[in-house]
Structure formats: C-alpha cells, structure tokens
Amino acid sequence: MNSIASYCGTPPLPTDLFLRWNLDPILLIALAIGAAVALRSARPRLMLGGVVVLALAFVSPLCALSVALFSARAVHHILIVAIAAPLLALAFPGRPPRFLGAALLTATATVTLWLWHVPSLYDRALAHTVIYWLMQVSLLATAVWFWRELFAAPPVPATLSAIAAMAQMGMLGALLTFAPDPLYVVHVATTLPWGLSPLADQQLAGLIMWVPGILPYAVITAVIGRRLWMRTAAPA
C-alpha cells in the first residue's frame, strides 16, 4: 500500500471506506457559512444545491476514495466544475461578458483543468495540503467564473463556449483513456486493493470524463440551443 497521506487521508481499503468521512472543522465551518449565505441569497435552492454537492465531494467518503483511485478523482472534479460550479453561477448571475469574454473564460477554465492533470502537478497536489487546496479552489473559481459568463452571454457565444468546454472535457478524457502507461505515480500502489491496475483505473477515469463528464455541458448546450431556436422561430 502506498504511504501517501493527502488532505483526505491515506488511501482507504474497501472494508473501511464508509468510515472515512472528512470532518475537518475548518471545512465544515466553511460549508456552514456557505449554506447560511445560500439561505439569504436571491436563489437559495441553487446555491444550497451547490454547497451540498461540494459537501459530497469533500466530506463524504468520496474524498478518501479519490486518494486511492484516480477514477474517483475524476468524479470528484466533475462534481466541482460541472455540477457545483454551474449551480453557484446560477445563484449569482453575472453581467453580459465583454468582447471575447466568453472565449477568454473558456480558455482560462480549460487551462486550469488541464494543468492540474499534468502528472507532476497532480502528484504534488495529493501529497501537500496547501497545493491540494490550491488545485480545488482554482478549479472551482475558474469554473464558476466560466459558467457565470456563459449564462449571461448571448445565445450564440454561449452555445459555442459550452460546446468548446464539452469538447475539451472529452479530449482530456480520451487522452487518459488511450494513454499506454499509467501517468500518475501517486496511484501506482493504491488501486490494487480495489481490483484495478493503475492503467485500468486511469482508463476508467478517462471514460468517466469522456462520457458522463460531458453530459452537464451537453444538457446546457441543448437548453441554450432550444432557447435560440424558439427565439428565431417566434413570429415577428
């Protein structure tokens, strides 16, 4: 068993996974503050939904499981950037973006997501708490920023941004799926108790990002496209 001890603890075994709740008091206080702010916001259900998703990602045993399995980390990141972030963005809508604003934010969110999947940076994040939280905060912040501007943008640039975001998530998933060797040293010895080789775990992570990971983007693209079609089809 790998001796790594990340913010979420040591890699769990299948027999003790459901005992591995993260009860970090600072985290719980931050989530409680988020819930209190949500109840006072203009759209409390949306923001509270985002806080609940973040609690699932960081408090539930998923946090510990993501230390053992890269595939669980893929689920963890999807919860943050594709579910919690758009809920928080809808709770605090932004102004229409300036020229090229949507494209710039799409690029920023994409670069942030891809950078944290560079093996050396990813391995360091799991080994050091400060870098771990830098990863999580930057992923959430750039994703919320991206979704706020996307929801505020006119239909055409919003649709193009959503399609671009969906494509980059799929490309990252495909890269991980078809990589011939395991990329992340930190998971080399942590996957075997779960019946997966490091390469199989990495391939599963890629498939998660490639298929279910793009679904939120596809749904939002379809909603925006439908609104655009209804607007153009409406009688003058």
Description of the molecule:
With 236 residues, the chain is mainly alpha-helical. The protein has one domain (17-233). It has helices spanning 25-40, 44-58, 62-68, 70-91, 101-115, 119-127, 129-152, 155-178, 198-210, 215-233. Helix 2 runs antiparallel to helix 4 (70-91) and helix 3 packs across helix 4. The chain starts with 24 loop residues before the first helix and ends with a helix. The mean pLDDT is 90.
Structural class by helix and strand composition:
mainly alpha
- H/E element string? HHHHHHHHHH
Strand content: under 5%
What is the residue-mean pLDDT, rounded to a whole number? 90
Oligomer: single chain
Share of helical residues:
55-70%
**Unreliable runs, pLDDT <50, ≥5 residues?**
none
Using only C-alpha atoms, the radius of gyration works out to 19 Å
User: How many DSSP-defined strands?
Assistant: 0
Number of domains: 1
Main β-sheet description? none
The rough form would be described as globular
Give me the number of helical elements: 10
| Separation, N- and C-terminal Cα atoms | 67 Å
Q: Brief overview, please?
A:
The chain is mainly alpha-helical.
Distinctive features:
236 residues, mainly alpha
What's the topology here?
Elements: H1 25-40, H2 44-58, H3 62-68, H4 70-91, H5 101-115, H6 119-127, H7 129-152, H8 155-178, H9 198-210, H10 215-233
